[in-house]
Amino acid sequence: MPDAAATPGLPPEPPPEPSREPLCASADLAERGKAWVWDVQQWGRPARAFALRFDGIVVAYLNRCAHVPTEMDWQPGEFLDMDRRWILCSIHGASYEPSDGRCVGGPCGRGRLTPVRVAEEGGQVYWYPSRDIRPVPFDEPAPGSP
Length: 146
Ligand code: FES
Description:
Low-confidence stretches: none
Order of helices and strands: EEEEEEEEEE
CATH superfamily: Rieske [2Fe-2S] iron-sulphur domain
Largest sheet: 4 strands, antiparallel
Shape: globular
Bound molecules: FE2/S2 (inorganic) cluster
CATH topology: Rieske Iron-sulfur Protein
Number of strands: 10
Number of domains: 1
Strand order of the largest sheet: 4-3-2-10
Strand content: 25-35%
């Protein structure tokens, strides 16, 4: 079926780039250091995500364990184990591969972390909202506010 927006004789327009949100400066994410944690909404409900640098690449996931849907950091922004090799859930010790979020040990079984798309450009880290994971609206009332 032809693209309705295509002009005859010209190649079709590429799809628009998904919009992105600034997250932090590249320098805020040291190699295997503390993660950058931020608020999002997943399916319209409050959630938190985190980004960290591992082997030079910025990766990001929802802060939600595949074992029990709870936050995993043992101190705010601290997700890596003592050897700075695995993402470690502080609740029951599930371990995840930082590069892809796959469970590699503990009670997370065949589960994996929910990825959040990120990109780094010009010294800035961006994240890409998806259909399911969105920014918190500016006019969202704080929990418990009238
Ligand atoms: S809640 Fe993460 S290992 Fe159980």
